């Protein structure tokens, strides 16, 4: 009986050893599989990191290319903007010149007729041809002609230099080929003159032109 018990105990011990071996082998296999999975995951992660770094570098290159293109386009835009502003400034200057030229033409067109009429009548009263009167004052007997002009026009207080301004205006207005406005009434001409928009550099003519119209009005009444 004792012998049988010993055999049974030995068998149990043997089974336990085998079980330990089996469990140990299983644990080792599981550990190997786990390490293998960890290694694969690490390798996969490292590969992903490499790919992300490569993509990041490619994106950096593209970003730098786009930035360079953006800077180039911005430079072109700034150059075009500068050219546009220069063109706009030139356009505005030309527009101002055009408006000024049109205003000068308007003054010439509206005043040339009665200025010519004034100079013609003044020349007749001083016994000169109209062109000769201007030449005499400009080139020959200025002091003598000056006295005659100021004496004749004393009633409107016109000075010889104002006569010269009107005479020069008449000569310059002859370069304007638009038909002049033939005002039948000196009164209408005075209203026209009071409403006229003179260019800034012609505003000085307003006073002598008014005096010329007053003189014409007096001379017309004499007739």
Short description:
Residues 2-104 form a coiled coil. With 223 residues, the protein is mainly alpha-helical.
Would you give an account of this structure?
The protein has 223 residues and is mainly α. The chain has a domain at 104-222. Helix content is 83%, strand content 0%. The chain has 6 helices and no strands. Helix 1 packs across helix 4, helix 2 (130-139) packs across helix 3 and helix 5 packs antiparallel against helix 6 (206-222). The protein is rod-shaped. 16% of the residues are buried. The mean pLDDT is 81. Residues 2-104 form a coiled coil. Keywords: Coiled coil.
- Strand-residue fraction? under 5%
Q: List the quaternary state of the chains.
A: single chain
Global Rg: 55 Å
Secondary-structure-based class equals mainly alpha
Question: Helical segment tally?
Answer: 6
- What shape does the CA trace take? rod-shaped
Q: What is the number of strand segments? A: 0
What does the secondary structure layout of this molecule look like, with pairings?
Blueprint: H1 2-125, H2 130-139, H3 142-152, H4 160-173, H5 186-194, H6 206-222
Helix pairs in contact: 1-4, 1-6, 2-3, 5-6
Coiled coil: 2-104
Keywords: Coiled coil
């Amino acid at each position: 009986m004792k012998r049988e018990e010993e055999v049974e105990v030995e068998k149990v011990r043997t089974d336990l050893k085998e079980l330990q071996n089996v469990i140990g082998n299983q644990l080792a296999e599981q550990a190997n599989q786990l390490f293998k999975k960890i290694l694969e995951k690490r390798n996969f992660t490292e590969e992903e990191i490499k790919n992300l770094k490569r993509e990041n570098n490619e994106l950096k290159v593209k970003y730098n290319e786009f930035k360079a293109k953006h800077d180039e386009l911005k430079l072109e835009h700034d150059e075009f903007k500068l050219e546009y502003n220069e063109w706009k400034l030139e356009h505005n200057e030309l527009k101002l010149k055009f408006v000024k030229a049109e205003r000068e033409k308007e003054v010439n067109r509206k005043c040339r007729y009665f200025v010519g009429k004034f100079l013609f009548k003044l020349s007749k009263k001083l016994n000169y041809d109209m062109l000769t009167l201007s030449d005499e004052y400009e080139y020959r007997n200025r002091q003598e002609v000056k006295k005659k002009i100021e004496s004749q026009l004393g009633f409107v207080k016109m000075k010889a230099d104002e006569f010269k301004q009107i005479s020069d205006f008449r000569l310059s207005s002859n370069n304007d080929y638009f038909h002049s406005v033939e005002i039948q009434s000196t009164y209408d001409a005075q209203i026209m003159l009071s409403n006229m928009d003179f260019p800034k550099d012609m505003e000085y003519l307003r006073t002598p032109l008014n005096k010329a119209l007053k003189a014409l009005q007096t001379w017309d009444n004499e007739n």
